[in-house]
Design brief:
The protein is low in regular secondary structure and 642 residues long. 14% of the residues lie in helices and 7% in strands. β8 (258-260) and β9 form a beta hairpin. The relative contact order is 0.10. Residues 1-17 and 20-83 have low confidence and may be disordered.
Length: 642
């Protein structure tokens, strides 16, 4: 049998008929050799191993050249060594095969070439290692071969090898919840640090603040903002409106050193951009189970400002949401002798509900907290039906979710100071507030946003009124309206410039019921040249629930202060802490004024700085704001419970 026949046979039978060159020899009967391998047929060669013996053949034509015997490697086969396998290319999928080497896919299954797959235990196709990398869904484990980071489970390819995850590789991997931070997912522990606000988290422990927002799964600036309503609903635009610019209600902004108007904060501080919401207060009281006293006593040594909650004030701190009347009696301002008619507390609910400890400010009917039909109460802390039954009040007409988005009102100093401590900060001082508000009139700055008299804020005459107030309008008087609605937003003689000026004024701050008329009755529609829209709370009787006039913090971007703080003027007055340790005496209220516009000088717009009230004083137009450490986050996240 000629070698050519042998090669064809092998190609057809063994290799399955794959295309390609089937032979590299010619029939020795032709007596010619093209490569020297057939020179071994020289009959006169003694061994066929050298060309010399090939030349002595008298008749062998293949020996005449002698060149084919120079290698001697094939001459010793002499044509009797058996068939030679062809140098055919690998076979396509579906062709016959003997082993993996026969196939382009390197995968021979039951005699046929099979298509490559990511589970065939073979490195084929574009895999970078066995069954991983490339277009395989399975990524390669550390130490396996890779070309790019996407080939690797942990997203790191170094020197063509997948690397183990670390807390400094710039990739979210291992048990991290975001890039190089957090530790609550499944995977290799990278010992990553806790995450900054706005980064992804799974649990509170992932975050520097100790708070992971339950709805957004993002770290918040302080743990009270883990709630949805009142936690992430501050800022521009109603929370229910698409495209709003709401943000974390615990966001803070730097305030520089300040020394004006008799106030002086010696060091720069971070002050919350937003007033405290009622939802955040609920979050706090729920976490401590109403036992404010227990939490403060346990953590007093480690809070940011222990001087705001000295041990002498402990009798005023509640030990439960509700509790029996205390045997102790106190003065609302902490002084002696105690007033026998005033117990130190009746529980946490008494310090956030309509209950009052004294008649200030405004006498018996001036506090505006107790919720009753026709009572004009503006308390924003939502009581459950069980809690309401304990206090004897009527239920809010505004929904709980909406109430918890609003600024907290009707709250005592003690709850505010303890809350800010629990939240990783401290209650603001009057110096902090004044620094954020800005300079005095002699410094050319009378408003939080500047001294532009043209844009002084303005409100409405009363709730649900289309008449702007005060009538003086600070030198701006709209044209006369024959219908006697000279100051009305419906004045048909207002031109575009006048409408724009009036619109700017009512959007500066929540003054004289602005929020109710802007967001509930939509009395800014005429100034914007559009039809009035039906709004969510427009059908609520203000006499039965005046909380509709309290705005969620931050709804007035045109009134933003120079450092980004909102509602430094309007909405609710802010209860502040004294500088230094104080176990008695009164606490100042900041000069915000309120949605009622009766608490600041409407001519200077400086606000009245003379409010000093007992720590137990509650009012339907007062709330608070927290300050933060310079590092934003607390050095140590204290336990949530007492």
């Amino acid at each position: 049998m000629s070698r050519r026949f042998e090669c064809v046979f092998v190609a057809a039978i063994i290799v399955g008929g794959c295309s390609g060159s089937e032979a590299t020899t010619t029939d020795d009967d032709a007596g010619a050799s093209s490569s020297g391998t057939s020179g071994t047929s020289g009959t006169s060669g003694t061994s066929g191993t050298s060309g010399t013996s090939g030349t002595s053949g008298t008749s062998g034509t293949s020996g005449t050249s002698g060149t084919s015997g120079t290698s001697g490697s094939s001459g010793d086969a002499g044509g009797d060594a058996g068939p030679t396998k062809c140098a055919a290319p690998p076979c396509n999928d579906g062709d016959l095969c003997v082993d993996n080497a026969d196939c382009k896919s390197a995968h021979c299954v039951t005699g046929k070439c099979a298509a490559p797959s990511c589970i065939d235990t073979i490195k084929n196709a574009d895999e970078t290692d066995v069954d991983c990398g490339g277009t395989c869904a399975t990524k390669c484990a550390p130490t396996k071969a890779c070309k790019v980071a996407a080939d690797c489970i942990e997203g790191v390819c170094t020197a063509l090898k997948c690397a183990a995850p670390t807390s400094g590789d710039g990739v979210k991997n291992g048990n991290e919840t975001d890039i190089d931070c957090g530790s609550s997912t499944a995977g290799t522990n990278t010992n990553a640090p806790k995450c900054d606000a706005k980064l992804a988290c799974v649990a509170n422990a992932d975050c520097k603040s100790g708070g992971c927002n339950t709805a957004q799964k993002k770290c918040v600036f302080a743990r009270s903002c883990t709630i949805a309503h009142g936690g992430t609903t501050c800022g521009t635009g109603d929370a229910s409106v698409a495209g709003n610019a709401n943000e974390d209600c615990c966001t803070s902004a730097d305030v520089p050193v300040y020394d004006l108007e008799g106030y002086a904060n010696a060091t720069a501080v971070r002050l919350d951009k937003y007033q405290i919401t009622s939802g955040r207060i609920r979050r706090f009281l729920t976490a401590v189970g109403g036992n404010v006293q227990g939490w403060v006593q346990t953590n007093r040594a480690n809070v940011l400002a222990p001087e705001q909650l000295p041990a002498g004030l402990d009798p005023y701190l509640p030990t439960g949401m509700t509790q029996a009347s205390s045997a102790d009696v106190c003065q609302p301002d902490g002084t002696a002798p105690a007033d026998p008619k005033i117990p130190c507390n009746y529980g946490a609910l008494n310090q956030v509900s309509g209950y009052r400890y004294n008649n200030g400010p405004g006498g018996d009917n001036g506090y505006g907290c107790y919720m009753s039909n026709g009572g004009y109460g503006s308390r924003t802390f939502y009581l459950t039906d069980a809690e309401r039954a304990a206090t004897g009040e009527v239920q809010h007409l505004v929904s709980r979710d909406r109430e918890e988005e609003k600024a907290m009102t009707c709250v005592t100093y003690f709850i505010l100071a303890a809350f800010c401590a629990w939240d990783g900060g401290r209650l603001e001082t009057i110096d902090d507030y004044s620094a954020a508000y800005g300079g005095d009139a002699t410094a050319g700055r009378v408003y939080p946003w500047g001294s532009d008299s043209v844009s002084r804020p303005i409100g409405f005459n009363s709730i649900g009124s289309h008449i702007v107030s005060p009538r003086v309008n600070y030198g701006y008087v709209p044209p006369d309206d024959p219908a006697s609605n000279r100051y009305s937003v419906f004045n048909q003689f207002l031109d575009a410039t006048q409408k724009a000026a009036l619109l700017l004024r009512v959007q500066r701050a929540n003054l004289t019921w602005n929020y109710a008329d802007q967001f509930l009755f939509d009395y800014i529609a005429p100034l914007q040249g559009r039809a009035q829209a039906p709004l969510g709370e427009s059908n609520i009787d203000a006499a039965n629930d005046s909380s509709i006039a309290v705005a969620p913090p931050g709804r007035y971007p045109m009134g933003e202060g120079r450092y980004g703080h909102r509602d430094l003027l309007g909405n609710v007055m802010e209860i502040t802490a004294q500088v230094g340790t104080a176990t008695n005496g009164t606490r100042k209220w900041a000069r915000n004024g309120s949605f009622e516009t009766a608490h600041f000088d409407a001519n200077t717009m400086l606000g009245f700085n003379g409010y000093n009230f007992a720590p137990l004083t509650k009012y339907g137009r007062s709330g608070g704001r927290c300050a933060r450490p310079a590092t934003i986050y607390p050095a140590t996240v204290l336990p949530e419970g007492p």
